[in-house]
Amino acid sequence: MQHISPEFSVPIKFCLFNIAWTWIASVITRNVSQVDRVWTFLPTIYTAYYAIYPLLPFADPGIKSLGVSPRAGLMLLLQILWMVRLSYNTWRRGLFSLKDEDYRWEICRKQVPGWAFQIFNFFFIAVAQNILLFILGLPAHNALIRQPTTLGATDIILAELALVVLALEFTADNQQWSFQIKGVINPNEWFGACISWTEDDRQRESISGKKYPDYAAYQERVGMFWPFGTIVKGHLLNSKGKKAEIDRKVWGPVKGKRIE
Question: Is the pTM for the entire model greater than 0.85?
């Protein structure tokens, strides 16, 4: 650690500690969702460290003299909101329970030999994911050492865009939850579910398709990455005379609501 900047010393040690305990716990319990349970908190912890670093007694004198970065503070606030949103979604899925494991890991476990899965568990689940969580705090470090005296217009605009993204993510969470629990996206029950577009990546869609039989209809109807994809798919299905049927499978019989 002698050649590492002082402000990195604690986060790196903390990251190594998290790699060690999540891997050991996964081997002992045979449950590899250990990182999943702390995923919602660790990026915020790293960001909080950099945000308050100038206030710490062991802080580098040069950085301490700069004081708390307003930009890093703004990043911390946004990450706290992100943490609350993701923690709520994780809680209602039951992943904070020590007995529960993400079903996707079980699918991966069945697809490879046991020894190969343990290698995957160590290098990807324990090591790579914890390093990724460590990296998510680095923008706050950049704000710490290159901080402006006040927040500028760019900071405010980007913060507002981040809030919009958070709102869309919350909408997507509720929409997916409604679909998985009820079998349809119910706009009358979940806030934001009336927005008829959210996306997932191909690997997750493949796994979700095996778990939820009607997910194929969702894939056929909803754009994967762009809202416009949903509109295009709607017109294509309409030209084939299948739109009404697919809409009923995805959104259910919604009265008084027109879905493109």
Answer: no
